[in-house]
């Protein structure tokens, strides 16, 4: 399937494939049709995490080039990160050279105003590390936004600016990459949903990276990720469930936050921050989420396998074959599926 190589001008005209697991039916539409596919009282939950400029190009003390891609914040000034060698996003991740060997105490400089030291190297791969920045607070955030760029991949046509990688309702900058399922939800569409009686709630989930270029590391994705669920969202979910209405997650990040939280508390959703290592799969039975709006992805990707928690593999493969034949576009700027009975 062909990737979308750049954000499109009118998200409402992007394609939407409704995948109905109960009826085994596929129906073509547009994002603008979403209000007609949801019912009054349904609850749509979005991820309001903003995307960081998480790609930092620097050099070791010996001058070797290294790209550091921030994965997630561990504590103030400390991040899990993925290392790449020379080159940049123009080269496919799987073709990038290995980074220089780094161990605890080694330093990477990103100019004269930003420095990070390696604190820990993962047993899973020497490319997966934990780093601590010298800077803290406002100086760190200022330097990150001066030096960093959005993470992007070789199929994208040109360098991305930070505003290309934000949803309309983005707030706290916690995401390594764009929580792309919400990208086409423009304000006019959200207001139309609300006018029709669909409720909209939010949570914050620190969306991680989608690809490392290393099959062994990719098999570990998604890594544990932070989330924060407001009390208002917990109440909205409870009210929807009590009324027999559907809860629709906008993306797998929202799904992981809601289902991961419920799994940690005996099936009960609780407000507050947390970390989830939940991996959705075909044997997983959702307790909170009834369906999801998600981007179109290739069936070889881990993201596609997560959808098997909501629809049979046979139907998903049929949907993918239909989407490919019909010219749907994939990846973060691509078209969408609504998996909902």
From TrEMBL:
Task: Alphabetically list the UniProt keywords.
Answer: Cytoplasm, Queuosine biosynthesis, S-adenosyl-L-methionine, Transferase
> What is one GO biological process annotated to this record?
tRNA queuosine(34) biosynthetic process
Cytoplasm in keyword set = yes
Looking at the Swiss-Prot or TrEMBL record, what is one Pfam family this protein matches? Queuosine_synth
Answer whether the UniProt record assigns the keyword Hydrolase to this protein.
no
Looking at the UniProt entry, the stretches that span the membrane are none
> Which molecular-function annotations from GO does this UniProt entry contain?
S-adenosylmethionine:tRNA ribosyltransferase-isomerase activity
Protein name as catalogued: S-adenosylmethionine tRNA ribosyltransferase
- Whose protein is this, by species? Sorangium cellulosum (Polyangium cellulosum)
Please spell out the taxonomic lineage of the organism that makes this protein.
Bacteria, Pseudomonadati, Myxococcota, Polyangia, Polyangiales
